Amino acid sequence: MKIVVCVKEVPDMESKFKLVDNKVDESQIAFKMNDFDQYAVEAALQLKEKHGGEVIIVSSGPERSQKQVRQAFAMGADWGIQVTDPAVDSGDTFVIASALYNAIKSVGDVDLVLTGVQAEDDQSGVTCPMIADFMGVPHCTNVVKLEAAGDKELAINRELEGGLNEQLGISLPCVLSVQSGINQPRYPTLPGIMKAKKKRLDVKKAADLGLTAVGTEGSKTSFIKRFFPVSEHKAEIIEGDPKSAAKKLVDKLKNEAKVI
Amino acid sequence: MARILIIAEQRNGKLSEATLELCKAAKAVAEGLGATPAAAVFYKDDSIAKEVAKYIPEVFSVVDAKLENYSADGFAQAAKAVVESQDVKGVLIAHTYDGIDLAAKVAMVLGAGIVSNCNKVAATGGQLVFTRNTYNGKIQEERTIKTDKFVATFEKGAFDKEAAGGAGAVTAVSASIGDIRTKFKGFVETQAGSVDISQAKIIVAGGRGTKEKDKYNDVIVNLAKKLGGEYAASRPVVDAGWTDAARQVGQSGKTVTPLLYLAAGISGSIQHVAGMKGSQCIVAVNKDPEAPIFNIATYGIVGDLFEVIPGIMEALG
Ligand SMILES: Cc1cc2nc3c(=O)[nH]c(=O)nc-3n(C[C@H](O)[C@H](O)[C@H](O)COP(=O)(O)OP(=O)(O)OC[C@H]3O[C@@H](n4cnc5c(N)ncnc54)[C@H](O)[C@@H]3O)c2cc1C
Ligand SMILES: Nc1ncnc2c1ncn2[C@@H]1O[C@H](COP(=O)(O)O)[C@@H](O)[C@H]1O
Description:
Bound molecules: flavin-adenine dinucleotide, adenosine monophosphate
Order of helices and strands of chain A: EEEEEHEHEHHEHEEEEHEHEEH
Strand order of the largest sheet of chain B: 9-8-7-10-6-1-4-5-11
Helix content of chain B: 25-40%
Strand order of the largest sheet of chain A: 11-10-9-12-8-1-6-7-13
Largest sheet of chain A: 9 strands, mixed
Shape of chain B: elongated
Structural class of chain B: alpha/beta
Distance between the termini of chain B: 68 Å
Distance between the termini of chain A: 57 Å
Oligomer: heterodimer
Structural class of chain A: alpha/beta
Shape of chain A: globular
CATH topology of chain A: Rossmann fold
Number of domains of chain A: 1
Helix content of chain A: 25-40%
Order of helices and strands of chain B: EEEHEHEHEHEEEEEEEHEHEHEEH
Strand content of chain A: 25-35%
CATH superfamily of chain A: HUPs
Number of helices of chain B: 8
Largest sheet of chain B: 9 strands, mixed
CATH architecture of chain A: 3-Layer(aba) Sandwich
C-alpha cells in the first residue's frame, strides 16, 4: 500500500503568544508536529507493517519545519516531499490543500492519504475533504478505527458525538482524517533518528509542482486580522501562594458557592 | 431575493440542536445581506423537512432513500442541486462531526470559499466578516470570503437556538443522487463503561497537565474520593490510557452538569468545554494565566496543580 501522510508543523500551544503586525511572534515559540498528525503517521506505519508498502510524508511550511518531517522519518516513514514556499504558506486553506494535492499527485499511484482531523493552530478541519475532492476520491473525517478489508477496501469507524461511532466501508484510493486515540504513536528510536537523517526529502516550490495560483491570489478567503479574545466573563482569580490560595478556595466552595 | 441556506442535521430521524442554532444564524446573516433565510433537508422522506419548517420560513426538501443516513457524497450532491436551482448565496453548516465531514466538500463542489469553525459573523457594507477560534481558543481570527458564493461552519453555541414559530413552506427539489462511495454499516456505542459520571454532584477532572498516569491517580482520583465525587478527564488523558473512556468529558465524551467541576491541567478547549459548561460552579487550576478555561470558570488558581491540589487536600482536612 502506498500511503501519504500530511504532516504540519504547529506551535506548542503552551507557548507564550504575542501578536506583532497581526502575526504570531515566532521568536517566542517552540514548534512541534501537529498532535493529530502523529496519530496519522502511526496509523500509516501500522498498515505498512501489516500489508507492506511505503509511507511518504508530505508537508508545507518554512524550512525550519523539515524537523517535523524528519521526526516522522525517525518514527519509520520512508521518504517525503516538503513544500517550502512563502507564496503557498501565505495562502488560505484552499491554497495549502492544492499544494499538498499537487505534491501527492507527483508521488503517483497513491492508495491512501491520511491527514490529522485538524491543525492545532488554524483549527479548520477542511484539508482532508479538499484533497479528496481534488483527487476525485471519497473521504472520511474523524477516523478512530482503520483496517484493511480485502485488497481495495478499508473498514473504518467515524467518530460521532458522545462516544457513538459510525461503521463504514470505503474503497481505495481515499483520503481519511485521523482522530487522536486511534493508536499510541511510537517514539522514535535512536537508530531511527540516525536513519532519518539520510532519508530522501525533496524540497519543492509551488512552480516545481505546477501550481500557479498561490498566496492571496489563489485564496478563496481573505485574512483580516488576529486578536486576543476578550471574554465577558473572567474567573475570580484567587491570589496567594499555592497553599494559602488552596485554603481560600476551599473556604469559598464551602461558604460562598456552598457546593461542598 | 438571494438565499442564505442552512443544511439541517439529523441522526436516526431526530433533528440536532445545532440545526436550531443554524436557523438563528441564517436569520442574522440574511438580515445583514438583505437576503432571505432558508433550510435544506436531505432525508428518506419529508418528515424532517416539515419539522424544520417550524423554525425557518422556507425549506427545500430532497427526498431519496440514499439520504436516510448522512454521507458526504449524498449530501454534497443534494446540496449542489438546491444551491444551483434556488439562488443561494451562502451555505451555513454546523461545525459538528457530520458538518466537518460535509462542509469542505460542499465548498469544493460549489467552487466556493469556506470559513470553518466560526463563532461570530457581522455584516458591514454588504460584506460578511467571520470570526473564528484558532490556537486552541487563545487567538481569534477574522476572515472574509472572496468568491461569489460562500460556505461557513459555526461552532456549537455560537448562536442561541431558534424557537419554534410559524409554519414555513416546504418545497420539494429533485436531485439525482449518484454513487455513494462510503458504505454505511451501522452505529456502535464505544464508551459504555461501569461508571456514569453524568449523575455526579462533584467532579474532579484532570487534563494533559497531570503529566502521567500515576500522577493523575495521585492528585485527581484522590481528590475526587476525598470530596465524595467522581473523577473525570479531558481527551488526551483517555487517549493515553490513564483512565477509561467512560470518564471523558466533552464533545466526544460525556456531558456533565455537577454542582462543582474542578478542572486541573485542562486548557479549556471548545470541545472539552462543550461537555461541562453547564456545571454550577467551575474551578480551574492551571499554570497558564491565559488558558481559555479561566474564561468560563467561577474561581481560578494560577499555579502548579501539583502544589495546589495537595493544598486543597490539606485544607479539607
Ligand atoms: C472532533 C474533536 C473532538 C474532541 N473531543 C474532545 C472531548 O470530548 N473532550 C476533550 O477534553 N477534548 C476533546 N478534543 C480535544 C481538544 O481539542 C483538546 O485537544 C483537549 O481538550 C485538550 O486537553 P487538555 O486541556 O487536557 O490538554 P492541553 O490543551 O494540552 O492543556 C494542558 C493544560 O495543562 C496546563 N498545565 C500543564 N502543566 C501544569 C501544571 N503542572 N499545573 C497546572 N497546569 C498545568 C497547561 O497550561 C495547559 O493549559 C476533541 C478534539 C476534536 C478535534
Ligand atoms: N501546511 C500543511 N502541511 C502538511 N499538512 C497539512 C498542512 N496544513 C494542513 N495539513 C494537514 O491537514 C490536517 C488538517 O488541517 P486543517 O484542515 O488546516 O485543520 C492536518 O492535521 C494535516 O494533516
